[in-house]
Design brief:
By secondary structure, the chain is an all-beta fold. It is extended and about 130 Å long. The protein has strands at residues 5-11, 24-30, 48-55, 65-66, 90-100, 109-115, 118-120, 124-131, 136-144, 150-156, 161-163, 169-171, 176-183, 189-199, 202-213, 219-222, 227-233, 239-246, 252-259, 264-267, 273-274, 279-286, 292-302, 310-319, 335-336, 340-341. Strands 8-15-14-10-12 form a five-stranded mixed beta sheet, with no helix packed on it. It has a five-stranded mixed beta sheet with strand order 17-24-23-19-21, with no helix packed on it.
């Protein structure tokens, strides 16, 4: 096409039936007649050979604190430990830049950080769902990051949250102190409030959040269908373990285990606490003293309000094993007095009579 001319592009399509579409027209202008001259491809990037950082104030290229790196075209995950000793409390900015093998420095990347003589282990303490009238606690750790002793003068928190702070505490330089914060809801619902600390370094706070939920006292016994000890020789004591599983949302305390037949005896420790989602085992022994069948109800009780007793059945029978039979063999041929038929007949092996 001739340069400095205006031209038209026509475009149309045909379907499978052989019919052509309406022609679309697009106008365009020609300003050059040959491909433009493109610049040569740039040289591949050189290695990064140095890096440095500075805090708040730029002392000039090459005058920052050097970062230990190995020369490479790309560097990631370089670890830097910042010395914050001597920095004033408050907001600061970190700047970091690198230099390539041509001696050129990059633009400095920056990030903000905050220094304080005291730090808290968490911005907030989350208690989750807590059954009414029960207590869950969390620890708030206060660390003295300064080089002088600091004091915790007061801690303020409202119900249903409480703390174990009672008097002024001194935290040595570099040391920590722990404040226990309890959550004991007495009504259902979400509770959100701060815990506030007054210290020699200033005031600090953390969020507290917990949800009070209705108590669900519950436990189960397994196997629920009970256990059959089968035939047991008189005056012997096989045992079987039942499992008590806490299926509620509060701990359950085991208070008593009873049977309705003295041949069945349960071993347990009154006062055993079964935690939420936890379990405990109860061993029940069976000792028949006379021949015949035995059966009993096994009953497990709790002293925790709302936890109902659970029951199951145990059965078995007692028998008196007789004396082993005495075998006598004929001595006349083809028998012998030791093994019976001679020559030996039948399959070799032990036989029980």
């Amino acid at each position: 096409l001739a340069p400095a001319t205006t031209n038209h592009l026509f475009l149309r399509t045909r379907n499978t039936e052989g019919s052509w579409s309406i022609t679309a027209v697009k106008q365009f202008a020609v300003s050059i007649t040959a491909d433009p001259a493109y610049p040569a491809a740039p040289a591949p990037p050189g290695n990064i050979v140095a890096a440095e950082y500075f805090i708040d104030t730029d002392a000039g290229h090459g005058s920052g604190t050097a970062v230990n790196i190995s020369a490479a075209a790309n560097i990631s995950n370089a670890n830097i430990t910042l010395p914050v000793t001597g920095l004033t409390n408050g907001l600061h900015r970190l700047f970091i830049r690198s230099k390539n093998n041509e001696g050129r420095w990059s633009i400095a990347n920056t990030a903000a950080f905050y220094t304080d003589p005291i730090s808290l282990s968490a911005d907030s303490l989350l208690y989750g769902n807590v059954p009414l009238s029960t207590t869950v606690y969390k620890n708030l750790i206060i660390t003295n990051d300064s080089n002088t002793s600091q004091t915790i003068n007061a801690v303020t928190v409202g119900a249903p949250f409480t703390s174990n702070f009672s008097t002024v505490r001194t935290v040595a330089a570099g040391a920590s102190d722990t404040i226990r914060v309890d959550f004991t809801p007495t009504s259902a619902g979400m509770f959100i409030q701060p815990i506030q600390l007054q210290t020699s370094a200033g005031n600090y706070s953390a969020g507290l959040r917990g949800n009070g939920v209705t108590q669900v006292p519950s436990w189960t016994i397994s196997p629920a269908t009970g256990h059959d000890y089968g035939a047991v020789p008189l005056n012997t004591t096989p045992s079987f373990n039942f499992t008590i599983q806490n299926t509620g949302n509060i701990p359950a305390t085991l208070s008593n285990v009873t049977t309705t037949n003295g041949a069945f005896v349960a071993g347990f420790t009154a006062g055993t606490v079964v935690p939420v989602n936890g379990s405990t085992s109860i061993s029940v022994g069976f000792t028949p003293v006379v021949v015949g069948p035995y059966n009993s109800q096994l009953k497990i009780e709790s002293s925790t309000a709302g936890v109902n007793f659970v029951t199951t059945n145990v059965t078995g029978s007692g028998f008196n094993p007789g004396a082993a039979p005495v075998l006598q063999f004929l001595t006349g041929s083809p028998y012998n007095s030791n093994t019976g038929v001679n020559p030996a007949a039948g399959q070799a092996g032990n036989y029980v009579y």
